């Protein structure tokens, strides 16, 4: 499937979660078996070499990262909201539009020197992906890049990641919020 065909599978919901926002709902793409497989194939084609791990951020990032890890023959690193993982963890705070949140990963999930590709469904402001990159780096991992199904370039997240040395590619881009 072409990128235009894949883009047509993403539903736009106006005024969610608040008036003036055009919410880009990737679940309609995930429901389409051929489209989901093609999207993962397109993302995998942008990756040079094989990372040791693909890191997915909660929650839809788990779906994208799992499929991409399987396609690339890599392990899967889950990065969750703080308090959701059993055992010893490291955590990183990040800014939200109103306040902060916190991501965590198991302290032993990423061996020093492991190469890690970040993956998520969507990048907006980049706060979640930046926190994930910082966690991986704190564990001694090497972030080799980030892949997203959707970029909202007007919100600057991909540029923020690039400024932190994380090469970023997205399959689709939508203007606005």
From TrEMBL:
EC number(s) per entry: 2.4.2.7
UniProt record similarity statement: Belongs to the purine/pyrimidine phosphoribosyltransferase family.
UniProt subcellular location: Cytoplasm
Domain of life: Bacteria
Known partners and oligomeric status: Homodimer.
InterPro entries: Ade_phspho_trans (IPR005764), PRTase-like (IPR029057), PRTase_dom (IPR000836), UPRTase/APRTase (IPR050054)
Catalytic activity, as annotated: AMP + diphosphate = 5-phospho-alpha-D-ribose 1-diphosphate + adenine
NCBIfam families for the chain: apt, PRK02304.1-3, PRK02304.1-5
Name by which UniProt lists this protein: Adenine phosphoribosyltransferase
Molecular function as annotated in GO: adenine phosphoribosyltransferase activity
Domain Phosphoribosyltransferase stretches: 32-141
Function as written in the Swiss-Prot or TrEMBL entry: Catalyzes a salvage reaction resulting in the formation of AMP, that is energically less costly than de novo synthesis.
């Amino acid at each position: 499937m072409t990128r235009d065909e894949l883009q047509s599978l993403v539903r736009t919901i106006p005024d969610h979660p608040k008036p003036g926002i055009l919410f880009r709902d990737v679940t309609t793409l995930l429901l389409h078996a051929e489209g989901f497989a093609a999207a993962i194939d397109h993302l995998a084609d942008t990756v040079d070499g094989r990372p040791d791990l693909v890191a997915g951020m909660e929650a839809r990032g788990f779906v994208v990262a799992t499929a991409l890890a399987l396609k690339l023959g890599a392990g899967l690193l889950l990065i969750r909201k703080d308090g959701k993982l059993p055992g010893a963890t490291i955590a990183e705070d990040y800014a939200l539009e109103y306040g902060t949140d916190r991501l965590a990963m198991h302290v032993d999930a990423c061996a020093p020197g492991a190469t890690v590709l970040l993956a998520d469904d969507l990048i907006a402001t980049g706060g979640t992906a930046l926190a994930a990159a910082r966690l991986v780096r704190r564990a001694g991992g090497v972030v080799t890049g980030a892949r997203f199904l959707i970029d909202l370039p007007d919100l600057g997240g991909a540029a923020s990641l690039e400024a932190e040395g994380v090469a970023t590619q997205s399959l689709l881009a939508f203007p606005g919020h």
